[in-house]
Amino acid sequence: MNTAPNQNRDNIAIKNKTLWGKSGDWYWQGLYCHWRVLGENNLKPLVLIHGFGASSDHWRNNAESFVKSGYRVYGIDLIGFGKSEQPGVKQLRKLDNLFWAKQLEGFLNEVVKVKIHGKAILIGNSLGSLVALTTIARNPELVEVIVAAPLPDPAFMQIINFKSPLYLKQIKRIFVRTFFSLMPLEIILPIITKTILIKVALQAAYYHSIKSDITLQEIVEQPSRKRSAAQSLRAMCIGMSLRPEISKGPFLLKRIDSRLKRPKILLVWGRQDRLVPLDIAYKIMKQYPWLDLEVINKSGHCPHDESHQEFNNYVLNWLKINLEGTNSKA
């Protein structure tokens, strides 16, 4: 296992504006994982977890600000995204937030070394928020607080939750696996990534125009153009469609809520989020009023990137208030 930062890779790609920190190589369960780090080794660890289709590069406007405020900042590329390996169903069968949470737990133990440096702060965007929530629900001893910007899960939109009979679950599993196995993603994905469709999809996550943001477009487009991208996407579609209830947002929050000591959790929402509307945040807050919520105006699904100055300032102030006995200078 190699967990050392790779300076040569950064030197080769120094012209890439999306780079921050030093790159590291790490193998988890035989799968290659890419990660980044910035800041002194003795500072409190803070881990940034990207959303669907993105990578650690998407925190281009956040990492340095957190480092200046006294944190050692890590960014991880989840399996299937960024520069990390993109396995398919033949190798893994499925990819879901439980799988990524296990990857993150391994990262916290083996790379961040939380037993030495203390519990980590997790900050996630979209899918990364769900992974952070899954992690703290499973292993609270690894995580001090989380920031979810925002927290998505289709299960939050369900009005009534009911248990399906076993035979219906079996039928669903067969249908989902057959449907996504037959779907020609190897043809569909290149069409999307090589046409204006990918820019249209990306724009849906932002309130302001991203037409002139070439760097942002590269962050999303480059990993999706790998030969292995389609097979990995298939594993994600199957995995996220067939998740058990224990892996879904409502169950995870209920599990956390049942503890005598609840962790500090901050939700950050863009008021103009078209992918996960603000109403979802209010619904979650109504059920779990001990959560904190910050709404950022004129911002979409990626407030950490689109409104990074406001996001950074608010998160750092929240951390200063809610963390005790840390070395944060926020």
Q: Any overview of this molecule?
A:
The protein has 330 residues and is of the alpha/beta class. The chain has a single domain, classed as Rossmann fold (3-Layer(aba) Sandwich), CATH 3.40.50. It contains 15 helices and nine strands. A nine-stranded mixed sheet has the order 1-2-3-5-4-6-7-8-9, with helices on both faces. The longest helix has 17 residues, at 166-182.
The top-level CATH class is Alpha Beta
Structural class: alpha/beta
Q: In what order do the strands lie side by side in the largest sheet?
A: 1-2-3-5-4-6-7-8-9
**Which strand-content bin applies to the residues?**
15-25%
Short description:
With 330 residues, the chain is an alpha/beta fold. 43% of the residues lie in helices and 16% in strands.
